[in-house]
Structure formats: structure tokens, C-alpha cells
Design goal:
By secondary structure, the chain is of the alpha/beta class. It has a single domain, classed as 3-Layer(aba) Sandwich (Rossmann fold). The protein is 55% helix and 11% strand. Strands 2-3-1-4-5 form a 5-stranded parallel β-sheet, sandwiched between helices. It is globular, with a radius of gyration of 15 Å.
Length: 174
């Protein structure tokens, strides 16, 4: 069963809960889900840090764009990586895609606590809180520009899911 007639894309900074929310949302609504970073890693047979190390961030962003287009054809809910909006080609594509784009966010201190010790995040590795906050701040306007709605993940998972479902299904009754 599809959650809606078009895919739901979850965007937002690292640690916002895109994967957790996406998995739970798909389970509650009996629809398909993919974590784009995991999909890239599986298809390329390398971890995200390995791709960054071997191909650079640009190489990773090219894979991300390629696999996003595939995922949109095959999945109902897609959790994207935090930097998906940083590559102009992908960002411009997202402006035109027929999907509900939901920006998940939380206060920066919460995000930083969730990601600061995660070795699978190449854009955080060996950066202090100030540098990570600068990266976060540099992405805000792009998240805002393409998002259908912004939802906070500061509250419980159940509250976050309810808020998303209320937005997604608000017009279905008419």
C-alpha cells in the first residue's frame, strides 16, 4: 500500500532522524522504505567513508544523484543523506521532482549530540562543534527552499510520526 500517490522524501541534517522516522513511517503505513546512504553503500559495495576517501565528496554526490533517481521509481519513503542538497545538480532536480519533501530538523545541540561520535559521517569526522554548526547553517536555506514542510524530531518518535501523517493525509479526506 502506498502512503500517498507519490514518494515521500525525508531531508535534513545528519542526526535529524531521517532513517529512524522513515523506517517507522513505512512500517506504520505498510509501504516501502529505503535509506539512500545504505542503498548507495550496498550498490557500490563500499561504506560511505570509503566512497568519500576513494572518490571524494563529488564522487559520492554523483552516486547519490544517480541512486536517488532509481529510488524515486521504486520506493514510497526515502531517507536521504544530510548533504543531498549540497550538490547543485541534485538540488535542482529535487526542486522539480514529484514527491512530498519533508525537512526533519532538531535544535543543533541535539543534532550534534546524536552525530559527534559517529565514524560513518565523513563530514563530521575530526571537526569540532563550531565547524559542524557552520556546515548545518550553510544548508538551512536549501532545506527550506525545497521542503514541503518542516517537522521537528525533538519530540518522541510517535509524535513526529503523527505530525507527518497529519500533514500527508490532511487533504485526502476531500
Amino acid at each position: 500500500m502506498k502512503i500517498k500517490k507519490r514518494p515521500v522524501l525525508l531531508i535534513g541534517f545528519m542526526g535529524a532522524g531521517k532513517s529512524t522516522v522513515g523506517q517507522a513511517l513505512s512500517k506504520r503505513n505498510q509501504c516501502s522504505f529505503i535509506d539512500l546512504d545504505q542503498y548507495i553503500s550496498k550498490c557500490e559495495k563500499r561504506t560511505i567513508p570509503e566512497i568519500f576517501e576513494q572518490d571524494g565528496e563529488l564522487g559520492f554526490r554523483l552516486y547519490e544523484f544517480q541512486y536517488l533517481k532509481q529510488a524515486l521509481k521504486n520506493y514510497d519513503i526515502i531517507a536521504t543523506g544530510g548533504g543531498i542538497i549540497s550538490f547543485d545538480q541534485t538540488f535542482n532536480f529535487l526542486k522539480t521532482v514529484d514527491a512530498d519533501i519533508i525537512w526533519l530538523d532538531a535544535p543543533f545541540p541535539d543534532l550534534y549530540q546524536r552525530i559527534k561520535n559517529d565514524s560513518n559521517r565523513p563530514n563530521v569526522k575530526s571537526k569540532d562543534a563550531r565547524a559542524v554548526k557552520h556546515l548545518y547553517s550553510s544548508r538551512l536555506s536549501r532545506y527550506n527552499e525545497i521542503a514541503f514542510i518542516k517537522i521537528t524530531t525533538k519530540e518522541t518518535l510517535t509524535q513526529t510520526l503523527s505530525e507527518i501523517e497529519n500533514v500527508l493525509f490532511a487533504n485526502d479526506q476531500y
